[in-house]
Design goal:
The structure is a homodimer. By secondary structure, the first copy, chain A, is α/β, with parallel strands linked by helices. The first copy, chain A, folds into two domains: about 260 residues, Metallo-beta-lactamase, Chain A; about 40 residues, no CATH class. Chain A is built from ten helices and 18 strands. Chain A has a seven-stranded mixed sheet. In chain A, helix 10 links the parallel strand 16 and strand 17. Chain A starts with a strand and ends in a 10-residue tail after the last strand. Chains A, B: Keywords: Endonuclease, Hydrolase, Metal-binding, Nuclease, tRNA processing, Zinc. Chains A, B: It catalyses: Endonucleolytic cleavage of RNA, removing extra 3' nucleotides from tRNA precursor, generating 3' termini of tRNAs. A 3'-hydroxy group is left at the tRNA terminus and a 5'-phosphoryl group is left at the trailer molecule.
Chain lengths: ~300, ~300
């Protein structure tokens, strides 16, 4: 089962001819969660052959245009494609105030409903869950209310070992309990330990998206030990003062957060257009945190099902 | 001096991975007039290396998202680039009502002024002029108020023949009058005909943009004899009924307008994504009007200075 992030856009406010403004999709077993929706997101979804019908949840980090100006076009297109299923948009409290009137004007005849969910950007809380995944907000420190999002797979049930169940003649009605980790107790009181009957499921995977934000250790407890962290790196350390002033981060600061939070891998993005050579971002981060990678539009970062220690 | 149209986007409402929604720039001597501004226009401007600072006038045909959703991103980017010069936006009366609040929310700190100009979409009128060019609206027939735009170079002054002026000892103060076409009359009453002293200037060039619209012969008097006509062709004749119902045109209808208006060349665009082979549009149009061409993103159509009969 897939758990992967595709970068649709990774530039900062000024898009270039190669890099779009911020947008990503998280693929959880072929259901797609859109994270931010900069201008051009719908074209990027097409380029990356992501089926629009598989998107039902959009998470907006903050209301700067480079993170949300793709919403009206995407919502219109979903309407033209004949969508009828509800679409849920999570974002700071003004999200509906800003985009509601645009929808009312441009998308009058749409056959589907857009449900806005206001996210409190001041604390981490569960904003969405289904049977596979939970999504928590991550309070960020930016010039306007902003939050990241933590996607965490739910712990799956243990895998039964068919041969052991047959060997011990386990009744079928016991299987759901054994999957949950219970030992089997037969009618004569014999106990078969769960570890004989099941194998552990794959570890639950997790992804944290943190953009835009200045360096803030307050997020560390929320993103602790995630498999994959996207942390903005608008500047290099040569512009640390500017990063601070504009409430952005440097590559080194992103790496420090990754290291302190004990994450497995770090993706950098949201590069300022002032830098022509983005490899400098990777180098600067890798000095602090070895497992640092650069986001590029169209790139997919996979977290394999086998667990947290696998390569992607 | 350049007079050319670059296609930034030429698809209909649903953009594809190769074709962006509608936007074009008309280059009049390195001043750029933006016509429509679909999502992704700012990225297309960058790809086509068009300098943002050279754009001061934007003409919006109608308020369907695929013709204007690129405005917020472009306006934000102009602000981030430090623009201070006014930007003028021409469009149907609701344009300011729709985009004003978005600007107010997202572009609070911009150092330049956006001036909205309401265009009456029911009649053709002069909406803009400067020393080189006049822009007229073209009433179109669509589901909502819509107009095209006719760009017409002003007639340039006649070119003086330096040798003739020297030969006849024409005083310098007479030159402006001679450029305007007057004969020279010397103090002793001798008349030197203007045709001996000047050559005609290059013919004034013209471009008409007509999208979106159903077939309407009412536009013919407005676009009569233009050098270059862009006319939408959303469908082929196999879907003429659908074209009529949705207030769009077929390639054949676009060609009929071109023929009846006596234009020199026709560009087709705004193709429905249902057609995979756009060459069918050219073929269908060429049966009626030989000089029919297909718009593609990134293509530039030049009208040379030498006049209306030159190739591009």
């Amino acid at each position: 089962m897939r758990f992967s992030v595709t970068i649709l856009g990774c530039n900062s406010a000024l898009p270039t001819s190669e890099r779009n403004p911020t947008a990503q999709v998280l693929n959880v077993s072929e259901r797609f969660f859109l994270v931010d929706c900069g201008e051009g997101t719908q074209m990027q979804l097409r380029k990356n052959k992501i089926r629009f019908t598989r998107i039902s949840h959009v998470f907006i980090s903050h209301l700067h245009g480079d993170h949300c100006f793709g919403l009206p076009g995407l919502l219109s297109t979903l309407g033209l494609l004949g969508r009828t299923a509800d679409l849920h948009i999570y974002g700071p409290s003004d999200t509906e105030k800003v985009f509601g009137p645009i929808l009312a004007f441009f998308c009058r005849d749409m056959k589907y409903k857009v449900c806005f969910h206001s996210v409190d950007t001041d604390k981490s809380e569960l904003v969405y869950e289904d049977k596979r995944v939970e999504v928590f907000s991550i309070p960020l420190t930016h010039r306007i209310p902003a939050c990241g999002y933590l996607f965490r797979e739910k712990e799956a049930e243990r895998h039964i070992i068919r041969e052991s169940l047959d060997f011990y003649n386990i009744p079928v009605k016991w299987i759901p309990l054994i999957k949950k980790g219970l030992d089997y107790v037969s009618e004569d009181g014999t106990v078969i330990p769960n570890s004989v009957l099941t194998k552990p499921s794959a570890k639950a995977r997790s992804y944290a998206f943190c953009s835009d934000t200045k360096y803030s250790e307050a997020i560390i407890p929320v993103i602790k030990d995630v498999d994959l962290l996207y942390h903005e790196a608008t500047f290099l350390s040569d512009n640390e003062g500017l990063a601070d002033m504009t409430f952005h981060s440097t590559a080194r600061q992103a790496a420090e957060i990754a290291k302190k939070a004990g994450v497995k891998k770090l993706i950098l993005g949201h590069y300022s257009t002032r830098y022509k050579n983005t490899d400098l971002f990777r180098k600067e981060a890798a000095e602090v945190f070895q497992e640092s990678y650069l986001a590029e539009d169209g790139m997919t970062f996979d977290i394999p099902n086998s667990g947290r220690d696998s390569e992607f």
